[in-house]
Design goal:
- There is one protein chain.
- The chain has 195 residues and is α/β, with parallel strands linked by helices.
- It has one domain (2-187): Rossmann fold (3-Layer(aba) Sandwich), CATH 3.40.50.
- Helices cover 34% and strands 15% of the residues.
- The protein contains five helices and eight strands, in the order βαβαβββαβααββ.
- The protein has helices at residues 12-26, 42-61, 123-136, 147-151, 156-168, and strands spanning 2-5, 34-38, 75-79, 93-97, 113-117, 140-141, 182-183, 186-187.
- The strands form two sheets. Strands 3-2-4-5-1-6 form a six-stranded parallel β-sheet, with helices on both faces. Strands 7-8 form a two-stranded antiparallel ribbon.
- A hairpin with a 2-residue loop joins β7 (182-183) and β8 (186-187).
- α1 packs across α2 (42-61).
- It is globular and about 50 Å long.
- The chain starts with a strand and ends in an 8-residue tail after the last strand.
Length: 195
């Protein structure tokens, strides 16, 4: 299980796409391998699926075809729910984008799942995931909002909401992934998250 709770515009979906494409590449010989992209809207889930397919094709094109005897194009389903009775069939891996915006009764905690979100909307599942990961020792990833985002007066309510969530739930953040934070004598070292 992977859990990321990060600020807006921190690259959550890009990391999800990269991980999913790598997962598909690792399972390229498994004709029955199926993953499901879960997102608040089916349009968003389908968009993410296309990004994953593109990244997957790039990875395949970079592989030596002499090493790969038989390739299977993986099945990538899309949904707005993780509930099995909706005709999804057996799923090997779930990728759940912006799960805080999906009603809690449409979500489930699976070990073979990648969850990422910005805290907002329904916090019930987010808090359950945090508690579960802390209890089981799963690693929790969190990236801070960028300095540019923080300095924008129009986005202050988003910044305050994210900061309040992190403080209240003791979520320690890495610096924004696209910014280098320098100190007087070099780059700041990042502390590991509390678990």
């Amino acid at each position: 299980m992977y859990l990321e709770i990060s600020g807006r515009q921190t690259g959550k979906t890009s990391r999800l796409v990269e991980h999913a494409a790598s997962e598909l590449t690792r399972n390229i010989h498994n004709s029955g391998y199926t993953m499901c992209i879960v997102s608040p809207t089916i349009f968003r889930a389908r968009h993410i699926r296309e990004l994953i397919k593109s990244q997957f094709n790039t990875k395949i094109n970079n592989m030596s075809l002499n090493v790969i005897p038989e390739l299977h194009y993986p099945k990538i389903k899309t949904s707005t729910t993780m509930i099995q009775d909706r005709g999804l069939g057996p799923i090997n891996m779930y990728y759940v984008d912006e799960f805080a915006f999906i009603p809690s009764d449409n979500l489930a905690m699976y070990g073979r799942a990648y969850y990422c979100t910005t805290p907002n909307g329904d916090h019930e599942f987010t808090l359950n995931m945090l508690e579960h990961c802390r209890w089981t020792g799963e690693y929790i990833v969190s990236y801070d909002i960028s300095r540019e985002f923080r300095q924008n007066p129009l986005l202050q309510s988003d910044v305050e909401e994210f900061d309040d969530f992190c403080i209240e739930h003791e979520l320690e953040m890495y610096p924004h992934p696209f910014e280098v934070i320098e100190k007087k004598f070099g780059v700041r070292h990042i502390k590991k998250h509390k678990l």
